[in-house]
Amino acid sequence: MPVTDVKQDLDNRTLTIVAEFAAPVERVWALYADPRQLERVWGPPSHPATFVDHALVPGGRTTYYMTGPEGEKYAGIWEIKTVDEPSGFTFEDAFADEDFNALPEMPVSHNAYSFAAHDGGTRATFVTTYASAEALQQVLDMGMIEGATESINQIDAFLAAA
Amino acid sequence: MTGRKQDEDRADALFHALADRTRRDILRRVLAGEHSVSTLAASYDMSFAAVQKHVAVLERAGLITKRRVGREALASGDVEAVRSVRSMLTEIESLWRGRIARIDELLAEPNETGPNATGPNQRRK
């Protein structure tokens, strides 16, 4: 099981995922540096990703989109902040329109990925933080409306948390 | 066991509370921060008593809590906010688990750039 730890920090709106891979740090870095490999892992099978521009350099701007089952496209932009090859990089991930203009009304997340040698393989730590209370509030609002109108799962989740 | 009936009653109260547009709007406001009932009432084109009734329905459903400071009734929705955040983070977590499984799979493939590379898919079992 490659995922070894998951932490939700509700106060800081942060999700931390720790995974261990049976490959050296340089190999894991190469996956993230190569858009052709990255797009094979980024989107779920129902929404495969296509990376258009991608270079892991500070100030770099990655553009990508995911394609849904009906051909609908969901675009995103990474603004690469810091790069420390092969130990990690940080970036902001924003939603975009189809011409890769950031959608200012959509939530932005800050991401820090780091890779460290561990037991002959790599321990990867992925930290995702929502940038502002507003961003989170927005996702929250969407969740509440969903909860009012949709899926039975949502009801169960409410009750399980009660 | 009364647990099942209590769950059903609670679900009824929750969905009754959320089935009204004004109540959803009130809930969004108090999730963002504590509001006095009179401040809330000023935001809607209806009587104070009507807004107070909506707040009471939300309170009975456990979606908001009220406390009294002097003559003011202050409503907040923090607890449910945290629960919503949790369910959102859980969704993102499951996306991550899938992604990490795909990374693991890709890393297990023979090195495509090595001297024995035969292309990305030809050597997969």
Topology:
The complex is a heterodimer of chains A (162) and B (125).
Chain A: E1 3-9, E2 14-21, H1 25-33, H2 35-42, E3 49-53, E4 61-67, E5 73-84, E6 88-96, E7 109-118, E8 121-130, H3 133-149, H4 152-161
Antiparallel strand pairs in A: 1-2, 2-8, 3-4, 4-5, 5-6, 6-7, 7-8
Helix pairs in contact in A: 1-2
Chain B: H1 3-18, H2 21-32, E1 35-36, H3 37-42, H4 48-60, E2 65-69, E3 72-76, H5 78-108
Antiparallel strand pairs in B: 1-3, 2-3
From the alpha carbons, calculate the radius of gyration of chain B and give it in angstroms.
Answer: 25 Å
Task: Note the gap between the termini of chain A.
Answer: 30 Å
Structural class of chain B: mainly alpha
Give me the number of helical elements of chain A.
4
- In round numbers, the mean pLDDT of chain B is 75
Shape of chain A: globular
Question: Regions of chain B with pLDDT < 50 over 5+ consecutive residues?
Answer: 114-125
- Poorly predicted ranges of chain A (pLDDT <50, ≥5 residues)? 139-162
The portion of residues forming beta strands of chain A comes to 35-45%
Using DSSP, what is the number of strands of chain A?
8
Largest sheet of chain A: 8 strands, antiparallel
Q: How much is the radius of gyration of chain A in Å? A: 17 Å
Number of strands of chain B: 3
Structural class of chain A: alpha+beta
Name the pair of protein chains with the most residues at their interface, and give those residue counts: A-B, 39 and 38 residues
Distance between the termini of chain B: 52 Å
DSSP helical segment count of chain B: 5
User: Share of helix among residues of chain B?
Assistant: 55-70%
Basic shape of chain B: elongated
Would you mind describing this structure in some detail?
The complex is a heterodimer of chains A (162) and B (125). Chain A is of the alpha+beta class. Chain A is 27% helix and 42% strand. Chain A has helices spanning 25-33, 35-42, 133-149, 152-161, and strands at residues 3-9, 14-21, 49-53, 61-67, 73-84, 88-96, 109-118, 121-130. Chain A is globular, with a radius of gyration of 17 Å. The longest helix of chain B is centred in the C-terminal third of the chain and has 31 residues, at 78-108. With 125 residues, chain B is mainly α. At the A-B interface, strand 1, strand 2, helix 1, helix 2 and helix 3 of A face helix 1, helix 2 and helix 5 of B.
